[in-house]
Design a protein that fits this description.
The complex is a heterodimer of chains A (77) and B (475). Chain A is an alpha+beta fold and 77 residues long. Chain A is built from two helices and four strands. In chain B, strands 5, 6, 7, 8, 9, 10, 11, 14, 15 and 16 form a ten-stranded antiparallel sheet that branches. A five-stranded mixed sheet of chain B has the order 18-19-20-22-21. The longest helix of chain B is centred in the C-terminal third of the chain and has 21 residues. The chains are: A alpha+beta (77), B alpha+beta (475). Chain A: InterPro entries: VdcD-like.
Chain lengths: 77, 475
């Protein structure tokens, strides 16, 4: 399964519709995008995903921490 | 004073007042739920709450949107008459604020104890009909849940126990992303737990007494209890229960209670999310929550917030409760402050009316607004008007701007001030210029302009207002 947002090909189904066969929810292990298979193509189709919201693995790796992880008290001496 | 011990009682009150639209025909989770809420927000300030009971693919979804999303609904949430004007709602909130603190009560038999999922059975998708709000959102979020945490350095101090509404991105069946903004109390708790090298216990209550939701949206001091404020706002103690896993104090009437831990010293990509600024936040590496237990009422109602390009529900939810603390803090220093309207994007723009004491007074009050706790991250533009201008009546404010302001002299511009990082015009992120616009008429010894002869309403106008309102109501 391919992530519509970052293109990673190792996505997994994490939920399926209680009414069988209506939709599945996919999760990307790289950019953590989730989508429902029944959503419009601009949210669910790698080929039609909205350009302005596409991401790369590099974008994910470069994201700033909010809030930054503080030093441990034990490390402060 | 009418109050509600759970979200269902509030929904019944909205229904009884004709403020709830039930939609039982099948809809798609996306984009119908959010599109309907956007449409409701475009109806003007009389928009209803929406209650969906048939969402495609779900067998028993119940989704409530826009519950706080109009002045009428906001009034009902606080037990006021639905037609109470916004200025009077804020004035009443200001009066009730003085009753703080009202201690909560602890009550047995919380309805959320009816059902439990633990361990490997924990599955957010089994309990909540999750869906996307805005197209560019990185996933499905919880955006109206009360997030409860304590300071691990002061675990038994319930004044420091925090109840706040923070966005939570669903990242798995038992995993959430958490946005702890540096100004938020939960970020303090997380910092202390991470300094200790520990996880931070956390409880997340979905579907609550509407006064708890308003208090959780209110900018309060670190050591002030939101539950005690909710008690003041609703005129009765808030009933609480203990979270069965964490021992945290949680709203007794919650529809769904998630409990677990913010994982210490861990960050993971989160977002973007269409924020209350009407813009998407960027993606950032944020904190991660592991959900260890889900407790829920039978047939839970998923209370969700709709936010998009303002105005939407979040503006009604946060607006009045942003005005009150700013007003209180300004009044401590300047009794001449008459009213504060800080409802625009959580107070990025604030309008303050004053009785100027002397020349230069209005700009001093405007600068003080920027140095309040909330003003540090907001109050980018502060407009100061005379007491005869109602800050809640924008045409009057525009009149003051049109005729009292000489841009050569009536703007106080400050550079490199602090602002919330979500402000899309901040540069660098978190830093912005700010401006006070003095739209008061100059008073001695400031003798600029020719403002000595404004046209005033006839003194008899107030009597006629009462007559006309009564006549209109009779029709």
């Amino acid at each position: 399964m391919t992530c519509p947002r970052c293109g990673d090909s190792t996505c997994a189904v994490i939920a399926s519709s209680p009414v069988p066969g209506v939709w599945d929810v996919g999760l990307c292990p790289v950019c953590h995008y989730t989508w429902r298979s029944s959503e419009p193509p601009r949210q669910s189709d790698p080929g039609a995903f909205a350009e302005e919201f596409r991401l790369t693995a590099e974008d994910v790796g470069a994201a700033v921490e909010l809030p930054p992880v503080p030093p441990r008290r034990a490390d402060r001496g | 004073m009418t109050h509600y011990d759970d979200f269902r009682a509030f929904l019944d009150a909205l229904d009884g007042a004709g403020r709830l639209v039930r939609i039982s025909e099948p809809v798609d989770a996306e984009p119908d739920l959010a599109a309907a809420a956007t449409a409701a927000a475009r109806l003007g300030d009389r928009e209803p709450a929406l209650y969906f009971t048939s969402v495609n693919g779900f067998t028993d979804a119940r989704v409530a949107l826009n519950a706080h999303g109009s002045w009428a609904n906001h009034a009902i949430a606080l037990g006021m008459e639905p037609d109470t004007p916004v200025r009077e709602q804020v004035a009443e909130l200001t009066r009730r604020w003085d009753d703080f603190p009202v201690a909560p009560t602890h009550r047995e038999g919380a309805p959320f104890l009816q059902n439990t999922l633990e361990g490997s059975d924990v599955d957010l998708f089994r309990v909540l009909p999750l869906f996307r709000v805005n197209e560019g959102d990185g996933g499905f979020f919880l955006d109206k849940a009360a997030v409860i945490s304590r300071d691990p350095d002061h675990w038994d101090d319930t004044d420091r126990q925090n109840v706040g509404i923070y966005r939570l991105q669903v990242k798995g069946t038992d995993k959430l992303g958490l946005q702890p903004g540096t100004i938020h109390d939960v970020a303090q708790h997380l910092r202390h737990s991470e300094e200790r090298g520990e996880d931070l216990p956390i409880a997340i209550a979905v579907g609550n007494d509407p006064a708890v939701t308003i208090a959780a949206s209110t900018p309060m001091a670190y050591d002030q209890s939101e539950y005690e404020m909710a008690g003041a706002l609703r005129g009765a103690p808030v009933p609480l229960a203990k979270g069965p896993l964490t021992g945290l104090d949680v709203p007794w009437g919650a529809e769904v209670l998630l409990e677990g831990a913010v994982l210490g010293r861990r960050r993971e990509f989160e977002g973007p999310f269409g924020e209350f600024t009407g813009h998407y936040s960027g993606g950032r590496a944020m904190a991660v929550i592991r959900v260890d237990r889900i407790s829920y009422r039978t047939d839970p109602v998923f209370e969700h917030l709709h936010l998009g390009r303002p105005w939407t529900e979040i503006d009604y939810l946060m607006g009045p409760s942003t005005c009150v603390p700013l007003f209180k803090q300004l009044r401590e220093d300047f009794p001449e402050v008459v009213a504060v309207n800080a409802m625009y994007t959580h107070g990025l723009v604030a309008i303050v009316s004053v009785r100027p004491r002397q020349g230069g007074f209005a700009r001093a009050v405007g600068l003080r607004a920027m140095t309040t706790r909330h003003g540090l991250g907001y109050c980018k533009i502060v407009i100061v008007v005379d007491e005869d201008v109602d800050p809640f009546d924008l045409p009057q404010v525009m009149w003051a701007l049109s005729t009292k302001v000489n841009p050569d002299e009536d703007m106080v511009h400050l550079s490199n001030m602090s602002i919330l990082p979500l402000d899309p015009s901040s540069s660098p992120v978190g830093i912005s210029g700010k401006v006070v616009i003095d739209a008061t008429a100059p008073v001695e010894p400031d003798r600029r302009g020719r403002h000595g002869h404004p046209v005033r309403d006839h003194p008899e106008t107030q009597r006629w207002l009462r007559v006309l309102r009564a006549r209109i109501k009779e029709r």
